[in-house]
Design brief:
The chain is mainly α and about 475 residues long. It contains 26 helices and no strands. α8 runs antiparallel to α11 and α14 crosses α17. The longest helix has 27 residues. This is SPIN90/Ldb17 leucine-rich domain-containing protein.
Length: about 475
């Protein structure tokens, strides 16, 4: 589930020693019901964490070991009967700046296992300021990694060459080279960061977040997520966690921008090609290969932002022509192959298709014109979309969006008007709200025009703040609501 240590200190143990270790682990967590008062729970929980930390990279070396260690605690009376207390205690310990790195990793791993085991536990974590705690700890890791993390790939310990002294050439200067200990610390920080990013992703995906959560996210945090992205791999867990967290943050910004004047920091760096180059390349790779509908919808939302003109930003030349062809190929494939129970995903793909055809070089090249015509004409007929199924709202939206593409793109064939069908579908669309964020709301353009300075990207403030100063600062007041928005 989470990456193994890169260089585990695997020791040789007999089968009896391994059995004895796990029996002792279970004994610490399985306290009697008579001792479930908070002092006993507190001491047993701390003892369990201390034992697990001391055993890390000795008896606990693999994902399977980590997961077993977590489940023993999560399924014990200690945790099940005092879950709220245990979660608050774990977060309190995690918030200690000088806490040992291995114990931080054990704690965040246990919290992530519980979040994935029981999504309702995320609400308990939020109750005890979970978002702020996870963000602050992650911010600390990012501040260190931004300074030293990249050096790991290019810096190695320089060896003294005795020939240099004989030839009179200057000796190699190590300059800012990293020691083995530094490299080990970087690996540990990346491990902790991977788990913390996944925790924040789970919160943003499954919980009802508040505006205060987004307010504490600063420029450096988003800049580091995007600028340090790699596009040469799809298997690196740290890289994938970064990617998913950026998607989730962008989705939250889009939702809150409907009600609050808040800057979308993901968009701010997204339209800066020098910062977002690797992220954009990875986005195209994943859009072509990922088959997880929620993740596909999140990717569609960020692609929609790229394709929509705002202020001085024009998307015409953001993507290379070959990249645009890949996007069209993927959209045609997905629109054809989506199952009937994923109509919301088809709606979202169609919302991306219109600006893609309208605001890019595709408006001149007309790539796969015949295939697009054939597909959109087919989807613009309700009988084709529904077949033997009822005409649900999402399917009516599919028809309207398909017809909208055909009508607004000059080089596509406009369908013959069907007044009754359009009227019925329009009525249904206005009678209820979609369960996903509307990507193509026309009134959003006026809103964005009024606050164009938020997207102007005139200055990139990417310096890591002093964590102590940032923690001590009182949280900012909520931003003003937009005019006409109900309170």
């Amino acid at each position: 589930m989470i990456l193994d240590p890169l260089s585990p200190n695997i020791e040789s143990h007999t089968q009896d020693e391994i059995i004895e270790f796990w029996e002792k682990t279970e004994a610490i967590a399985n306290i009697s019901k008579e001792n479930l008062d908070e002092p006993h729970v507190n001491s047993s929980l701390v003892a369990y964490l201390k034992f697990a930390t001391d055993s890390y990279k000795i008896f606990i070396n693999t994902d399977r070991d980590l997961y077993r260690m977590s489940l023993i605690l999560l399924e014990s009376p200690l945790f099940e009967f005092k879950k709220e207390f245990c979660l608050s205690k774990l977060q309190s310990l995690l918030n200690i700046d000088l806490l040992e790195m291995n114990m931080k990793f054990i704690i965040v791993y246990i919290l992530l296992c519980e979040a994935k085991k029981n999504v309702h536990s995320l609400e308990i974590m939020l109750k005890f300021q979970g978002f702020t705690v996870f963000y602050n700890v992650l911010y600390t890791q990012f501040a260190y990694l931004s300074k030293y993390g990249k050096e790991k790939t290019v810096v190695c310990k320089q060896q003294y060459n005795p020939e240099d002294s004989k030839t009179g050439r200057p000796l190699h200067s190590p300059d800012r080279s990293l020691t083995d200990i530094d490299l080990a610390i970087i690996d540990e920080m990346k491990q902790i960061s991977t788990v913390l990013m996944d925790l924040l992703f789970q919160i943003l995906k499954y919980c009802k977040c508040v505006i205060a959560n987004l307010q504490i996210v600063d420029n450096f945090f988003v800049y580091f997520l995007m600028e340090s992205m790699r596009s040469d791999t799809m298997d690196d867990m740290f890289n994938n966690a970064q990617f998913k967290l950026l998607l989730a943050l962008n989705e939250q910004y889009m939702m809150f921008s409907k009600e609050f004047d808040i800057e979308n920091k993901v968009y701010k760096y997204l339209i800066n090609g020098s910062v977002s180059k690797s992220f954009t390349e990875l986005l195209l790779l994943k859009f072509n290969r990922v088959s997880d509908p929620p993740l596909q919808i999140m990717m569609c939302k960020i692609i929609y932002l790229i394709l929509t003109p705002r202020g001085d930003y024009v998307p015409m030349n953001f993507f290379y022509t070959n990249d645009l062809h890949v996007l069209i190929d993927v959209l045609i494939r997905e629109l054809q192959n989506i199952s009937e129970d994923e109509e919301i995903l088809r709606n979202t793909l169609l919302r991306v298709l219109l600006p893609l055809l309208k605001n890019t070089q595709l408006s001149k090249t007309h790539y796969r014109k015949d295939d697009l015509n054939k597909l959109l004409i087919y989807l613009s007929t309700l009988d084709n979309v529904c077949v033997d199924s009822p005409a649900l709202h999402e399917r009516q939206v599919t028809v309207l969006l398909s017809r909208k593409c055909l009508q607004q793109i000059p080089w596509l064939k406009a369908p013959s008007p069907l007044p009754d069908e359009d009227s019925s579908a329009s009525s249904n669309m206005t009678s209820r709200n979609s369960s996903i964020v509307t990507l193509g709301a026309i009134d959003n353009q006026d809103i964005l025009a009024r606050k164009g300075h938020l997207y102007s990207n005139r200055e990139l403030d990417i310096s890591a703040e002093s964590l102590t100063k940032r923690k001590a600062r009182a949280p900012p007041p909520p931003p003003s609501r937009k005019c006409g928005t109900s309170k």
